[in-house]
């Protein structure tokens, strides 16, 4: 069979609730030099993927996998394809160092098949250097060869699909915070999100080895407080309507030596304003990381807050350069395994198969009704 049908889920870039399931033919005989056809095996899906869509224009996420009309026009009818993280198998290859049947992990479109152009080929993986790919960072372009990946575990693929890309942000964010933190109270908003949980676990569990005295505090919605506490990743957990408790006892916001650092995963301007009013000058730092509350009516203003924006791929690139790629992967794999063991009883696997089920999961996640404890394993057939 030389013609493959690629099933794709398109999303209206201006109206994220408007989706379209399409099919596009890919002729294997049309592959050019160094092009590789990837067949999606499975991918994960969570609020993080909604962030990719919500920040698609601002951060450039729509540029990775442009939707194409039948006449090969990019961004067909104003639609785009939301990026996901998943496993894929090489279905066809015109690159001499990449073999058919090889399994990889990386950044994929919500599509059953996709053509990349392989470059920077190394034992640990390769990159997509296709001219159609408008990338915002080379970190997103890397595909790891599972056979050479120390973090790959065939029996825990569901965990890797749903947590690994998010935990990568956690891993480098913890590394960044550890360089600067002293004795602050570290506030993590959207504390039930997978990225916040991973960051909190790293920060808390490594305090002793760092001789650090910071405190790791989670902020979350009232219905998620018990779940976040049960994770054991935080020193303390408060709901958003308990912010007044932050300035009680020894950590009084009126105390000259009390300092708070907000690691914000929600992008809810109202929440940050409430924290600013509650803590005053004691809120010394604000770092913006994610946008789990993408529907928030008020967004944070980085300039007004004097906030920094944390871009994980830049930190990944820095540490890969300083430590070396293999050492970076080894350190990450070790941290990742410890985290997975710690929270393994907090989540369960959930399968979604076919375009209709994928669309439904996307819409439920968009609307905030998807199961937050689910490790979603998504396949096209």
Categorize the overall geometry.
Answer: globular
SS element count, helices: 11
Query: How much of the residues is beta strand, in percent?
Result: 25-35%
Would you identify the CATH architecture of the largest domain? Alpha-Beta Complex
Biggest β-sheet strands, sense, barrel: 6 strands, antiparallel, barrel
Q: Which superfamily, in CATH terms, is the homologous superfamily of the largest domain?
A: Medium-chain alcohol dehydrogenases, catalytic domain
What's the level 1 CATH class of the largest domain?
Answer: Alpha Beta
Tell me the domain tally.
2
What would you say this structure looks like, in words?
The protein has 381 residues and is of the alpha/beta class. The protein folds into two domains: 3-152 and 347-379, Quinone Oxidoreductase, Chain A, domain 1, CATH 3.90.180; 163-313, Rossmann fold (3-Layer(aba) Sandwich). 31% of the residues lie in helices and 28% in strands. The longest helix has 24 residues, at 157-180.
């Amino acid at each position: 069979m030389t013609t493959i049908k690629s099933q794709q889920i398109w999303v209206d870039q201006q109206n994220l609730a408007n989706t379209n399931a399409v099919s596009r033919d890919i002729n294997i005989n049309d592959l050019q030099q160094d092009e590789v056809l990837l067949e999606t095996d499975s991918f994960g899906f969570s609020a993080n993927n909604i962030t990719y869509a919500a920040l698609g224009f601002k951060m450039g996420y729509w540029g990775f996998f442009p939707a194409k009309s039948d006449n090969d026009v990019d961004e067909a009818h104003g639609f785009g394809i939301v990026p996901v993280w998943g496993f894929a198998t090489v279905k066809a290859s015109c690159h001499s160092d990449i073999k058919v049947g090889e399994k990889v992990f990386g950044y994929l479109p919500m599509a059953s098949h996709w053509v990349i152009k392989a470059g920077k080929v190394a034992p640990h993986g390769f990159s997509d250097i296709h001219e159609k790919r408008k990338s915002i960072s080379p970190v997103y372009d890397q595909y790891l060869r599972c056979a050479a990946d120390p973090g790959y575990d065939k029996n825990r693929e569901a965990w890797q699909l749903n947590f690994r890309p998010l935990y990568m942000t956690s891993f480098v964010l913890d590394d960044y915070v550890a360089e600067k933190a002293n004795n602050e109270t570290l506030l993590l908003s959207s504390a039930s999100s997978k990225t916040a949980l991973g960051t909190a676990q790293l920060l808390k569990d490594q305090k002793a080895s760092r001789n650090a005295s910071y405190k790791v505090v989670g902020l979350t919605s009232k219905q998620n407080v018990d779940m976040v506490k049960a994770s054991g990743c935080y020193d303390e957990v408060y709901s958003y309507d308990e912010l007044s408790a932050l300035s009680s006892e020894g950590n009084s916001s009126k105390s000259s030596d009390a300092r708070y650092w907000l690691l914000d995963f929600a992008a809810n301007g109202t929440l940050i304003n409430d924290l600013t009013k509650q803590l005053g000058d004691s809120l010394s730092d604000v770092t913006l990381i994610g946008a789990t509350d993408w529907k928030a009516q008020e967004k944070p203003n980085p300039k007004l807050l004097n906030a920094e924006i944390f871009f994980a791929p830049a930190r990944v690139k820095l540490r890969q350069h300083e430590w070396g790629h293999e050492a970076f992967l080894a350190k990450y794999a070790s941290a990742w395994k410890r985290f997975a063991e710690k929270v393994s009883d907090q989540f369960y696997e959930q399968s979604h198969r076919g375009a209709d089920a994928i669309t439904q999961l996307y819409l439920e996640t968009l609307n905030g009704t998807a199961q937050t404890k689910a490790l979603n394993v998504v396949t096209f057939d």
